[in-house]
Amino acid sequence: MPSKFIVIILTIFIFIALQFAERFKNKPNFKLWCWLLVTPAYLLTTFIYLYAFQQVNFTDPSNLTEIVRVALFITGLSIFIPFIRQYLAKLIPIDSKSHLHTITLVLSLLLFVYFSYHLDPRKALERLTSSSNDHIEQLITVFLPCLFFSVFGVGFLIRRTKAQTIARLGLSRPKLQTFLLGVSLCIAYLVFVEPTLKYILKICGFVDNPDILNHIKHHLQNTSKNWLEILLLGLLPGIGEELLFRGALQPRLGILYTSLLFAVVHTQYGFTTVTLSVFCASIYIGYIRQRFGTTTTIILHACNNIIAGLAAYLNYQ
Fold first, then answer.
1. Phi then psi for 175, rounded to 5 degrees?
2. What does the CA dihedral 104, 108, 113, 117 come to, rounded to 10 degrees?
3. Which of 11, 26, 155, 294 could be 159's S-S partner, Cβ–Cβ 3.0 to 4.6 Å?
4. Cα 256 from Cα 241, distance rounded (Å)
């Protein structure tokens, strides 16, 4: 796969070009400019796909993981076909004629391919044991792209004003009742929803590699050694991930598909029951976003992470 830096730079260019194209698409005098903006965006998206496609190993056709990757590549490229998008528009709330929605869908499928390389349990253990000790830097390097793509991905400063961007992301001015609601919904999840999910997974026979679980627990302890790390563990993912997934993506991709993406990007330590729990938690948070807005989900997410960090900190002590 291309390096993360190259992918981020190319994706930034793609979305800036598409936002300008969206702004001027209904102005007759700018049709040529729109074409000049949209064409490079499609070419760069195709380049990223073809570059990633070279990483697939065809030497073992019996390898199910490789077959799935090939299927994902083909599915992603098929989204360029108009009637495929028209069908998808019946399932998720996208505009099948929008270049922005088209490329967002294509690149989202590439996420599944990228994170499928994380599913090897041996590699998962290697990442856990060799991860950097600078956990604050890791949090920031994830937070900043999430913040950028959520805010500028919906057209801030290009086709939306500050007020329009805030409304599009589902944000509102935080009030005491919003804070209390977010905390209450977090407690409800921890007390009722999460234990129920764990029980269902247990009776369904899902069993994790104990080595991976122990390393995940150790990793969480390492990221929660002091109050600053615990606070940042709550705020940075809470704000960044909620703005991107619930604020920017969910209104266009729907709750289920957004939850799949959310679960996929949490497979950095392999596929475990935690991944399934994250998917179910994302559906829960998705409905809360739909009912109460993104500000409430940010508080819920941050509260959940802080509680997890506190538990790890107390256990570490």
1. -120, 170
2. 130
3. 155
4. 16
